[in-house]
Amino acid sequence: MLSYRKILLILPLLAAACMQAEPTPAPQRAPQPQPVQPAALPGFPHLGTALPAGHTSYDNGDLARLFTVMSHEMEGGARRAHLTRFETPVSIGLEGPGAEDVGEFLDRYLAQLRENAGIRISRGPAPNNLHVRFVDGERFENTLPAAVCVIAPGNVAWDDFVRDPLKSTTRALARSRRIDAMTIFIPDNVRPHEARNCLLEEVPQALGLTNDLYGLGMSSFNDDAAHLWPTKLDYLMLRLLYAGAMETGLDRRETELRARSILEGINPQGRAAPPLPRLRRATLDRWSQLIGRVFSRESTESGRMTDIGKALVLIEAKAPNSPQHCHTLVTAGRVLSRPAPERALVMLDAAARVCDAAHGPSDIRHARIRLEAACASLRLGRYAAVIADAEALWPVLAAHGQDERLAALYSMQSDALDATEPDSSRAAAARELADDWNAYAVGPGRRAANCKPRT
User: Fold this and answer.
1) What is the number of other CB atoms lying within 10 angstroms of the CB of residue 384?
2) Where do runs of H (alpha helix) occur along 319-424?
3) Residue 412's CB: how many other CB atoms inside 10 A?
4) What pLDDT is recorded for position 145?
5) What does the pLDDT read at residue 29?
6) What band does 129 get if pLDDT is binned at 50, 70 and 90?
7) Could you tell me how far CA 383 lies from the centroid of its own chain?
8) How far, in Å, CA of 12 to CA of 341, rounded?
9) Backbone phi, then psi, for 290, in 5-degree steps?
10) What does the alpha-carbon distance between residue 74 and residue 53 come to, in Å, rounded to a whole number?
11) What percent of the chain clears pLDDT 70, i.e. is strictly above it?
């Protein structure tokens, strides 16, 4: 069997083969999807029984430094001179086409924020100070082709935002000294699970934690999107931000000092606790760029092969056995799954070893790797392995609130049973379950995953 390092060496050859077999013209913008009418949440299985997940038993000094990085730094390297947060209760307003479709979900999420982070936040009538605006999807993509959703400081109208997006996003957030209002823009043609994921990610960022950190494995503030819901660590950071002793305007040094003092009171398990795992951030900018390009809208299959091959070489040299190494191997498995599923399984097996060492075998990434392996197995016609994976994985994905991945898993299970026992009651039940979860996650008549072999 090929080792994943040998696969790494032949990735450029696979990329060249893709270019020869499928000459690709300059990418053209696909027809814009239309707004999707979401379906009801299926009654089985119940989502979220393992939430919140993650860990907080790390040294309070390390946690205070992490909090400072999350509250004073931003993606892309910008820094905020002052701590910012809402100093009044947060009232959220939903506006735009399809906004009310996420109302029930948002209410459940806000209840979690109130319970686990102690933040005074709820949905209510105008006037609001946190605005969630669903806007024209095609115009959103033309304005921000690399984004799924975005936040802007202030009560910002969509037309005003479009006139100067940079003025309203990172640049403005970095300069702002206080939060009086925030706006979250979500395109109205995203799939239902993407709209919900935007709320899960952008609401905490709008509250004042503006940084995503590759390598922060036990957090949803991580660009690998393994944890979709806030974890225990995230709720601790939010509780810290909205503690009474914190306040808008603190400089970086005072923020860290107060954070350490507050943590001694609210996180006693952090006294003399193990250090926070090292966040490898220096020298990895090129890696972040490569990973960011792999699944961009403009990327081709051969381009993905080339970029992930370069990312693997870089991470092997700069940060072996790190969370970033874990993420790179999982991504490589996804890239290889369609053109070379056998090789994808080798890469995912290596990913499991690295990820379990970096994050622990109970981390949600372990289930994610097995989900990717089930997809490759289905493409190879290994139906028994797919059925076994489905039985093992659905409780984990459901417990962590991973609705789109649950829909993908049930789709694979249904395909495997249709291939092996198409007339059985078990296959019929699997088809119904897959249809229900796909309708909830991606919309009626759509599928969250297509793992059938390419014809």
Assistant:
1) 10
2) 323-337, 341-359, 364-379, 383-399, 403-420
3) 29
4) 87
5) 47
6) very high
7) 29
8) 16
9) -65, -45
10) 24
11) 90
Angle between helices 285-294 and 323-337 (to 10 degrees): 30
Q: pLDDT value at position 16?
A: 58
Query: Distance from first CA to last CA of the chain, Å, rounded?
Result: 25
Which pair of tokens denotes residue 56? 């907080």
CA distance 18 to 110: 46
The identity of residue 233, as a single letter, is L
pLDDT tens-digit series, residues 300-309: 888 999 999 9
Answer left, alpha or beta for residue 322, where phi above 0 means left and psi between -120 and 50 means alpha. beta
pLDDT of 19 strictly over 60: no
pLDDT of residue 74: 83
Q: What's the CA angle centered on 286, arms 283 and 288, to 5 degrees?
A: 100
pLDDT at position 150 is 93
The pLDDT, as a whole number, for residue 4 is 72
The tokens describing 419, both together, are 């291939």
Tens digits of residue pLDDT in 298-334: 888 889 999 999 999 999 999 999 999 999 999 999 9
Specify which residues 150 forms β-bridges with. 185
In terms of Cα–Cα distance, which of 107, 108, 105, 144 is closest to 441? 105
- The DSSP secondary-structure symbol of 327 reads H
**Cα separation, 376 vs 386, whole angstroms:** 9
What is the residue-wise DSSP string for 385-396?
A: HHHHHHHHHHHH
Q: Which of 139, 143, 140, 168 is CA-nearest to residue 156?
A: 168
What is the average pLDDT across 164-190?
A: 84
Q: Taking 80 as the threshold, does the pLDDT of residue 7 lie above it?
A: no
Helix residue ranges, H only, 73-222: 103-117, 137-143, 158-163, 165-168, 170-175, 192-206
Token pair of 418 as six digits:
């249709």
Please state whether 39 falls in left (phi above 0), alpha (psi between -120 and 50) or beta: beta
Task: Using CB atoms within 10 Å of the CB of residue 13, give its burial: 0 to 12 exposed, 13 to 18 middle, 19+ buried.
Answer: exposed
The predicted model gives 13-34 an average pLDDT of: 51
What are the Cα distances from residue 324, in Å, to 78, 231, 251, 279, 296? 21, 19, 30, 10, 18
DSSP 126: S
